[in-house]
Amino acid sequence: MTDSAPAPQNYTVEYVDGPLKGQIDTRILVGGEYDKTFGVIALVDGLESNFEYTAVSTRELNGELHVSYSFDAKDSDPFVSDDDDTDLGEALV
To answer: Does an H or E element contain 14, and which?
Structure first.
């Protein structure tokens, strides 16, 4: 019988664009796999909005899985951005 290191249970989400650009989150691996797509409910100007994100790349950093996600505007609620880096709030977990 050999001892092996336990498989990681979570991964780090990095939002590369869209309304959550620059934020990070932690999600749980399901069956050892990260989500290819998922929706995030976030507050924008006090209103709940659904934003869809799609995985675009992965990397390992300090032994942990990091997955970068890109905003899917066509499947998301609309939002207004003046590209002024206004803080749109945080994802509701």
So the answer is: strand 10-15
